[in-house]
Amino acid sequence: METAVLGKKQTNLIKSLVQEQRAFFNEGATKDINFRIKQLKKLRKTIVDYQDKILDALYKDLRKSETEGYLTEVGFVLNDLDEAIAKTKNWARPKPVGTPLFHMKGSSYIHYDPYGVTLTISPWNYPFQLLLAPVVGAIAAGNTCILKPSEFAENTSKVIMEMVSENFDSNYLAVVEGGIPENIALLEEQFDYIFFTGSTQVGKIVYQAAAKHLTPVTLELGGKSPCIVDKHIQLEYTAKRIVFGKLINAGQTCIAPDYILVHKDIREKLVKEIKKQITSFYGEDPSQSSDYGRIINKKHFKRLMKLMKSGDICFGGQSNEEDKYIGPTLLENVQPDDPIMKEEIFGPILPIIEFNELEEAIQFINDRPKPLALYLFSKRQSHVDKVMRQTSSGGACINDTIMHIANPNLPFGGVGPSGIGAYHSESTFKTFSHEKSVLHKSFLVDVPIRYAPYGRNSGILKMMMKYLNK
Ligand code: NAD
Asked: How far apart are the CA of 305 and the centre of ligand 1, in A?
């Protein structure tokens, strides 16, 4: 792992960037709702202006087709911006809450305070969406932002740098490009909020760095997301939805189904249908399909080729190192302690493991770290209830894969090793806001018995405690 330390000059640049953003935040301009909405509109226009360059960079980095690039990256962020532009005023309005009689006469509300200077660090797999979507919420909530794109999606990183630096003052929005040294230098600084998306391993480093300053964090991490396939299903749709979620972005999706746990009675039929659907999506030779992506770099290509040695290949297995191409691959006879079951696959390789009883599948999942997503295909409500009750995962999707991320009403995040916190839509706004609890008392009434000396009032006070929650 690269561990070089950044030179003094660059470290000082990062330091002064944070200081300038803090000074600008302290001036108070970002707290004005109209300012926030203006900036959101400006960001929207900037992204539309840069759309072709962004899509081109995504193609260069990950061979993302224009359609996929728009749907999962640019369009995703534009949708978030449209919602934030329309709803920020409402989101930011203080929310009244009840006030117990005991506090006569007063009112209570939640006031949404921006944290201040925020840092968003993103990975390479959805290099545009995962950097900009949090920033939409950070702006809506009234913060300043430093954006750190992934160095591995270098073309996208460059375009984001150009797009932001040419359109925004760096004391408000600024991009810091680079790798581990830049991240280390950034994490030395005191931020008011850190939003990190990436691996569990690096998430721990970020959490430790944040702890030094007691900086609150959101950690959107990874892990192995299981997919249970019961015997009571609609076979064709099940296969299609699994292939869709597994092979979009060539399997490099944090919530891609990592492995399948299928009931033994249906395994053969499911494998046959998955093979059929892969061919119908990407043709006989997926390397020729304009809709099939590539692995981000040779390091990950080599890692995936090693993982492919677990179990037996029953479909696919083709690869081309120069092109960073790995075809859709199905593995059978995988053992629980094989290397492929020890780490997040993050590529187009799908192990298929069979079970006899649903309890076995549940046990298999519960013996492993809590996943970011859990998928279950089943027509039986009792089976759905059982899996939902007896497992813990960041999110879940029944009878589909990855689509829960596309419902803005569902906060998205992990649990335990798959993450801390959640975002999307209003949750992103709340993530970047401190919920300040305010009790506002009037001068009209003043209950004297609460003051010392308590004497005989002690009994009355104890009795009044009962009405605290009324
Ligand atoms: P990563 O953790 O290697 O890198 C993420 C970011 O951290 C990058 O910007 C990188 O520059 C920085 N970084 C890397 N090493 C660092 C270090 N030692 N100190 C400080 N910063 C460092 O992750 P990745 O390989 O870019 O992305 C893949 C991982 O991200 C997978 O585990 C995937 O599941 C996860 N992921 C999670 C989500 C989610 O929403 N939960 C989304 C996408 C990806």
From this structure: 21
pLDDT, one tens digit per residue, over 93-115 is 999 999 988 888 899 999 999 99
CA of 89 to the centre of ligand 1 (A): 33
Say what the pLDDT of residue 1 is.
45
Query: Among 14, 183, 196, 200, which is best to mutate for testing ligand 1, by the most ligand atoms less than 8 A from CB?
Result: 183
Question: How far is the C-alpha of 68 from the C-alpha of 81, rounded, in Å?
Answer: 19
pTM as predicted: 0.95
Annotation marks residue 220 as catalytic: yes
Residue-wise pLDDT tens digits, 154-206: 999 999 999 999 999 999 999 999 999 999 999 999 999 999 999 999 999 99
Q: Which residues make up the CATH 3.40.605.10 domain(s) of the chain?
A: 8-221+422-433
Give the closest residue (by CA) to ligand 1 atom 32. Answer: 199
Task: Report pLDDT for 351.
Answer: 98
What's the mean pLDDT when you consider all of the chain?
96
Quote the strand ranges of 198-279, DSSP E: 217-220, 226-229, 259-263
| Nearest CA-CA partner of 126 in 303, 254, 257, 282 | 254
**Annotation says 397 is catalytic:** no
Domain 8-221+422-433 has CATH 3.40.605.10: yes
Catalytic residue among 182, 254, 344, 354: 254
Residue 4 has pLDDT above 70, yes or no: no
470 pLDDT more than 90: no
Selected catalytic residue, list 220, 344, 354, 426: 220
Any residues with Cβ below 6 Å from ligand 1, and which?
Answer: 121-125, 130, 148, 150-151, 179-180, 183-184, 197-199, 202, 205, 220-222, 254, 344, 346, 372, 414, 419
pLDDT band at 6 (very low <50, low <70, confident <90, very high): confident
**Measured CA distances, 109 to 284, 391, 418, 425 (Å):** 60, 36, 33, 22
Q: Where in the chain is the domain with CATH 3.40.309.10?
A: 226-413
Superfamily of the domain at 226-413:
Aldehyde Dehydrogenase; Chain A, domain 2 (3.40.309.10)
| SS3 labels along 153-205 | CHHHHHHHHHHHHHHCCCCCEEECCCCHHHHHHHHHCCCCEEEEECCHHHHHH
